[in-house]
Write a structure and sequence with these properties.
With 706 residues, the chain is of the alpha/beta class. The chain has 22 helices and 18 strands. The strands form 3 sheets. Strands 1, 3, 4, 5, 13, 15 and 18 form a 7-stranded mixed beta sheet that branches. Strand 3 and strand 4 form a beta hairpin. Helix 20 runs parallel beside helix 22 and helix 21 runs antiparallel to helix 22. The chain is extended, with a radius of gyration of 37 Å. The N and C termini lie far apart (88 Å).
């Protein structure tokens, strides 16, 4: 067996007998004749023939529980004379199989037909909800004349600038704010649903209403020409999904579900229509992404704008608190910019706020190493700077913070800064653009020895860093594993701590604090992580905070929640809105636009109750009503706080394309006149200046066709 090669050579020269290969093919080996020849001398066991005959003759079981029964292709006649080697009677078996196959095909066809019918019905139902028919034109402009003393209603809605020294009424003949000719000359009208038999609807009015409907309905065809009252070419309105909170839509009479499903926004609600409509439990959000996108001058930083995220950037209103409780609640009322049926609307703001961290003991001595690289999201750099500005609010008089900005060439931005200098630096750095890369190793060498070092960087920047940063990061991860992921309890070797940005990490506003140093890139998570690492204190104060806002039906004709647009699927869901967690220094708010029952009512329209779960486990509840100090309903120019609320709410809805805005040129003109009179008075706030710049930029861009 050792000389295999010699044997192989000898076998290669051996001739193969003729016909051997054809006889060894599988077709020949398993032919019926060969099988019969091999079985000819095999003795048949007694009773085998009867057993086979009985199995074939037996009727198939029609209830097979999903199993495949091949006996259905057999025949029910006797087969005593069928030879076992070559069956020849095949016609009955084929007929039975074809009948069964036809039955299966029929079942599948019926199922497909049912699916087709359901699909067509669903499409038609969606079209009906989106208002493609003439009857749906009643939701293109809202009817507020019902249940009002004054049944007349301007159609479309009139935007009111109060009389007095601060503002003049909007001039419909002015070149900049003039509406189309059909709107400028049209008399006061009521919606088509309110017209009687003696008030025929002009065909041109129906055509105009249909054009406006095309501009605001999701999924509707978009006209190729600009529509009246629109800046630039028309666009299909889209609705994005909220990231953390959503509204619960009532299923009661009096709630305009068609408007909700069409626009994704809450319609005006009459609190007297149903007892449940007098109480609203709004969703809550802390995100300010919409404000960042609104005020960004760089096109790369712009994104989807949500009105509630613009309002979230405001400072808290005057508030009161329960004795010994950390949460304060306030209500602020200010007259709106428009009138409905001769009645001025009122904006009602309800806000809950928590004070910054109150510390004692040893002063803070920390150094922040900030990653200026874009890392795929240039907006993160602005959020880091805004979080640093929030950190300044938590510093005591003796606390000092140094800042190292890590771009391609790192630099020391400030050394041993107090709260005032740190806030000013944050404002300056916020308007600087992000860098293409960052040198974290060189930035770490610029830190002050002996201070609490906090590296705020993207995960991709840390992966590209050198040995010094990697050693510190490894020590940080080891300390986190020993402390069970607690970023406050861990004590890393060398003292360097990290705030690592990971877009895949859950937001701290949704699932608690990020674990193992991974932080989401939203502004709430960045702010909480930076404040916690710099101060060394836990920031959670109140969890599961919820609002209940009650409207007095005797004083309120209609109300609506500003912002919080949602998809049709979310509107149909039944899950209640979730509360939110409040950390030190945070404020959460909701804003309503309210139509008073009569023109002389403009105060005390709503009351609120705010509840939360404290760190001790109990659930305090604070009821609050507006007072004279928090009311800003005079006919003149409101206070700076009231101007901020009007401008933030109006510009947020204008930029987000809200269906409640109405004629956009008139609405923009009202906002511009508010800004002009506020600037003339000379007490414009930094937030107001940022919003005014954004309004001017958007208006100039719209006039230039951008």
């Amino acid at each position: 067996m050792s000389d295999h090669r010699r044997i192989d050579d000898a076998l290669r020269s051996t001739p193969v007998p003729e016909g051997l290969q054809s006889r060894l093919r599988p077709e020949a080996l398993f032919a019926d004749n060969e099988i019969d020849r091999l079985l000819a001398k095999v003795p048949v066991p007694p009773g085998l023939a009867d057993r086979i005959r009985n199995a074939i003759v037996e009727q198939p079981n029609r209830h097979r529980d999903g199993a495949i029964d091949l006996s259905r292709f057999g025949t029910s006649s006797r087969i005593d004379k069928i030879p076992l080697a070559r069956p020849t009677v095949l016609a009955p078996r084929h007929r039975s199989g074809l009948v069964s196959l036809a039955r299966d095909i029929t079942s599948v066809a019926v199922a497909l037909g049912l699916v087709f019918v359901i699909t067509v019905a669903g499409i038609e139902f969606s079209r009906q909800l989106e208002g493609t028919g003439p009857a749906d034109k009643t939701i293109t402009r809202l009817d507020f004349s019902e249940n009002m003393d004054d049944p007349s209603l301007e159609w479309p809605m009139r935007f009111h600038i109060p009389d007095g020294a601060w503002a003049k009424p909007v001039d419909p003949t002015a070149p900049k704010t003039a509406p189309p000719a059909d709107q400028a000359t049209a008399p006061n009208r009521v919606p088509p649903s309110e017209r009687g038999p003696s008030s025929p609807v002009p065909p041109e009015s129906i055509a105009r209403d249909e054009q406006r409907m095309m501009a605001i309905v999701r999924g509707a065809p978009v006209s190729a020409v600009p529509l009246p009252g629109m800046l630039g070419p028309p666009r299909m309105a889209t609705v994005d999904i909220p990231t953390a909170a959503r509204r619960t839509v009532p299923r009661v009479r009096g709630y305009d579900l068609a408007f909700e499903m069409t626009t994704g926004e809450q319609p005006f609600v009459d609190p007297a229509a149903h007892p449940s409509l007098a109480l609203d439990r709004p969703p809550l959000t802390l995100r300010t992404d919409g404000f960042e996108a609104l005020t960004a001058m760089d096109r790369s930083l712009r994104g989807r704008i949500r009105a509630e995220e613009v309002l979230a950037a405001m400072q808290p209103p005057p508030a009161r608190r329960l004795k010994g409780q950390p949460v304060a609640v306030g209500i602020h009322e200010v007259r709106g910019l428009r009138s409905v049926g001769g009645t001025r609307t009122v904006l009602v703001e309800v806000a809950a706020t928590v004070d910054p961290i109150q510390r004692g003991g040893r002063p803070i001595e920390a150094t922040l190493v900030l990653d200026q690289a874009a890392a795929g999201n240039p907006a993160v750099w602005r959020r880091i700077c805004r979080a640093m500005g929030e950190l300044a609010r938590h510093l005591a008089a003796d606390d000092r913070i140094s800042v190292v900005v890590c771009g391609p060439r790192p630099r020391v931005a400030v050394e041993s800064a107090d709260a005032v200098r740190l806030a000013a630096l944050a404002t300056d750095l916020e308007w600087q653009s992000s860098a293409a890369s960052s040198d974290l190793d060189a930035g770490l060498l610029l830190t002050r020895p002996g201070s609490r070092i906090i590296v705020v960087a993207h995960a991709v920047s840390l992966e590209a860093a050198g040995g010094a940063v990697r050693e510190s990061l490894s020590a940080w991860h080891n300390a986190l594993s020993i402390a069970g992921g607690d970023t406050l309890a861990c004590d890393p070797v060398g003292g360097t701590r990290f705030v690592i940005f990971d877009p895949t990490a859950p937001s701290s506003s949704e699932r608690g604090e990020p674990s193992f140093g991974r932080t989401s890139t939203d502004v709430v998570s960045i702010r909480r992580a930076l404040v916690q690492q710099a101060t060394g204190r836990a920031t959670l104060v109140a969890s599961q905070c919820e609002f209940e806002v009650r409207f007095d039906p005797r004083r309120v004709a209609r109300y609506r929640l500003i912002g919080h647009r949602q998809s049709a699927v979310e509107s149909l869901a039944d899950a209640p809105s979730l509360g939110t967690d409040l950390h030190a220094g945070e404020t959460v708010r909701v804003v309503y636009e309210v139509i008073p029952r009569t023109p002389d009512i403009h105060h005390g329209l709503a009351s609120a109750a705010v509840s939360w779960r404290s760190l001790a486990g109990d659930r305090p509840r604070l009821d609050v009503a507006p007072n004279r100090s928090s009311t800003d309903v005079s006919d003149g120019l409101p206070s700076p706080r009231g101007c901020e609320l009007l401008l933030a709410a109006g510009l947020g809805e204008f930029a987000s394309g809200s269906s409640h805005v109405g004629p956009r040129p008139a609405f923009a003109a009202a906002l511009e006149q508010l800004v002009a009179e506020w600037q003339r008075r000379g007490d414009m706030t930094p937030l107001g200046e940022a919003l005014a710049r954004s309004l001017n930029h958007r208006r100039s861009g719209g006039r230039n066709g951008q």
